[in-house]
Structure prediction request, 261 residues.
Amino acid sequence: MALTAEGRELTEAHRLLQLGIAARATAVSKSLWRRLQVSDLDGSMSSWMPAQLAAWRLFYGQSQEVASEYITAYQAAEIGAASKIVQQAFGVPEMRDAALLAGPVRVKMLIKRGMAADEAHSKAFTKFSGITRRQVMSGGRLAVAKTGSADQRAVGWRRVTDGDPCTFCGMLAGRGPIYSSKQRADSIGGTGLEYHGHCGCTAEIVYGDWEPSDSEKLFIEEYDKAAKQADAAGESRTQENVLWRMRENGTFRDSPLARNK
Prediction:
């Protein structure tokens, strides 16, 4: 976690602001969803897609702006001096593909599986709302990650959960500030930028020694327990072998123990 109390407060405030932006983006996307007519999915694309991409671009930009303000204030609190903010431009082709797959393609898939057309249209938006959150919040998430990776004073950047993460997010958060570059992140199995739909995680640049929070200590303990179980079973400590054991053992949001409470 951050070195200073002010830094920790700024990180949490930033996370909540990003969730607020995502919520507003979801509300707009829900309104636009009506343009995607289930009786003519291909034909209504010409009205829906440009409006949807424009909405994502707007809120992506807001996510970037909030992240820039946060990073500047956070760096001042942690080390007394800011650095250049590194942003990633809104990628239209990638965003269009994400909207297409989570939108009309998914509606068609649900109908093909036997679901009634209107129900498929409604159900598909549940997933689409999660994709909206992910795509919009990537503006701020990437700003923190890229700025942290470019800042030579930083140890790296870490994943910050919403306090009740799924097993996957808990595992990544428990790794701490290992994400100092894409090459480094890839070498330890995942870039840290793998945010699922509806994910409430953000990121924080780390300066100095990393001290895990109480929840992060729990994530580390759960990982170690699952890793030892994989050892005992004669399996290597890959994400595939460890993650499902963490989920079964723990009380993460998607763990059986949590679901059965």
In short: The mean pLDDT is 92. The chain is about 65% helix and 5% strand. The CA atoms of residues 71 and 144 lie 7 Å apart.
